[in-house]
Design goal:
It is a single chain. The protein is an alpha+beta fold and 441 residues long. The protein has helices at 31-38, 65-77, 127-134, 161-171, 259-266, 293-303, 370-373; strands at 10-11, 19-23, 44-51, 57-62, 83-84, 87-88, 90-93, 112-118, 140-148, 151-158, 189-194, 209-211, 245-251, 274-280, 283-289, 307-309, 313-320, 335-337. The strands form 4 sheets. Strands 16-17-13-15-14-18 form a 6-stranded antiparallel sheet. The protein is elongated. The model is unreliable at 1-11, 225-232 and 347-441 (pLDDT under 50).
Length: 441
């Protein structure tokens, strides 16, 4: 068998062409390497890399025929062969006169764009935010959203390819304006290509799909409540039925959150009647009951996504509960009925939540030692932020709760209950300014 080195470096078996065929290229040869190889002989206008069974062949196309002839002639008479990464490359004229790359749907301009939303909070971008962004370039006919392996994506349909092209050229690689996103969402960028679709099929109006050309399209069953009433919110998502009982989930719980801490936080918006805490899915959740729905709505809107402690610790995620009246059988560190002060004290959990482990026998929530919950190498909890004000004594804190002036509270008032162990050294509650949600993280 003839060795590779004995093969001719060029061939005259084909008539001259602007396109040259290259063989014996290194693995995964790049377009830049091919352009660099042909640059001394003329302008390389097109390339096609990694062809052939072994992906070691390629084509380069010159702007002029004489440029391709010059390259072939030079290496035919040169003692130095053409090389890429130190590997000898064999040249010949191609039997094609130009390189035709098979274009994908992403390369062909159309009236439908495929949009990939990138970012940690991409899945929280609503369909109405996308509509606002893209309608700046023309009338948006339809939008559908979905999740693929590439991430959270959307198809956006315009009336023609020109409007879609204008939107693509302006928005590709850009961030969604922050003022269009909720405060708790991080940056979300757009990666846009053309879609092969020309007319999207939208069967229902929902938080995942919209047809703006057909206002009479039925609403998806998932967006209709049990009474047959449409519960689609302004953001296009299914609207939660409001309730006087809130379900609070606590995320990133680096510090202890007691029942009294929750009472202090939520009573800033109105009288809290009952609280029940429980463990679920590896985290801590709580049900908080108000006397009316409106108070619960105000509390939910003010606290959703905020943190109890500075530094992003103990973040609250709040939704409405299906409960309307919690059944509290006993007052302890996991459940409390503030409307009946003489409810029996014990370690039994509320009946609506099932049995939960409780580590206490006293009717009062235990005193928490700050060092017990401090990060490694830290003897005490971090001090509260400057928002506490200069009137607070500089004493060690067992829990760094950040509670400040609350616009929904009368000036100079404080919540009715302070969590035991929140202040050491005999600090008086009367010296603490009321809770303020503007300091929440």
């Amino acid at each position: 068998m003839a060795s590779v080195s004995s093969q001719p470096q060029f061939r005259y078996t084909q008539p001259p062409s602007k396109v040259l065929h290259l063989r014996n290229l290194p693995w995964e040869c790049t377009e830049e390497e091919l352009i660099e190889l042909g640059k001394p002989f003329g302008q390389v206008v097109n390339t096609k890399c990694n062809v052939g069974a072994n992906r070691n062949q390629a084509f380069i196309e010159f702007a002029e025929l004489n440029q391709a002839i010059t390259m072939i002639s030079y290496y035919a008479s040169s003692s130095e062969p053409a090389q890429v990464r130190g590997k000898t490359v064999y040249l010949q004229y191609s039997n094609r006169q130009e390189i035709v790359n098979n274009k994908t749907a992403a390369d062909v301009a159309g009236n439908v764009l495929l949009v990939t939303i990138e970012g940690a909070d991409a899945r929280l971008v609503s369909i109405d935010v996308l509509h606002l962004v893209f309608s700046a370039f023309g009338f948006v006919h339809k939008i559908t959203t979905f999740e693929k392996t590439a991430g959270f994506q959307a198809l956006v349909q315009f009336s023609d390819a020109q409007i879609a092209t204008d939107a693509k050229n302006s928005l590709d690689g850009r961030n969604i304006p922050s003022y269009l996103l909720p405060d708790h969402l991080g940056p979300c960028s757009l990666r846009i290509t053309y879609s092969g679709h020309t007319d999207l099929s939208v069967k229902f109006q929902s938080h995942r799909s919209r047809d703006y050309t057909n206002p009479y399209l039925p609403v998806a069953p998932s967006a209709i409540d049990g009474n047959g009433q449409i519960s689609l919110g302004l953001d296009g998502k299914k609207q939660e039925p409001e309730s006087n009982v809130l379900l609070a989930s606590i995320e990133n719980m680096q510090y202890a959150v007691t029942l009294d801490v929750l009472h202090m936080v939520f009573s800033a918006f109105g009288p809290v009647q009952k609280i029940a805490m429980f463990d679920k899915n590896g985290g801590v959740q709580a049900l908080i009951q108000y006397p009316d729905v409106q108070t619960a709505v105000v509390a939910k809107e003010a606290l959703e996504g905020h943190c109890i402690y500075d530094g992003g610790f103990c973040k609250l995620h709040i939704s409405y509960s299906r409960h309307t009246d919690l059944s509290i059988k006993v007052n302890n560190d996991r459940s409390r009925d503030y409307t009946i002060p003489n409810v029996p004290v014990g370690n039994t959990q509320p009946s609506i939540l099932g049995q939960q482990p409780v580590n206490m026998t006293s009717p009062v929530a235990p005193q928490y030692n700050g060092a017990q919950f401090a990060p490694t190498g830290q003897a005490m909890m971090p001090q509260p932020s400057a928002g506490w004000g200069p009137t607070v004594p500089a004493v060690p804190q067992s829990m760094p709760i950040q509670m400040h002036n609350q616009p929904y509270m009368p000036s100079g008032t404080t919540p009715s209950s302070m969590a035991p162990g929140m202040m050491q050294g005999g600090a008086q509650q009367a010296n603490l300014p009321p809770y303020h949600n503007s300091h929440m993280q």
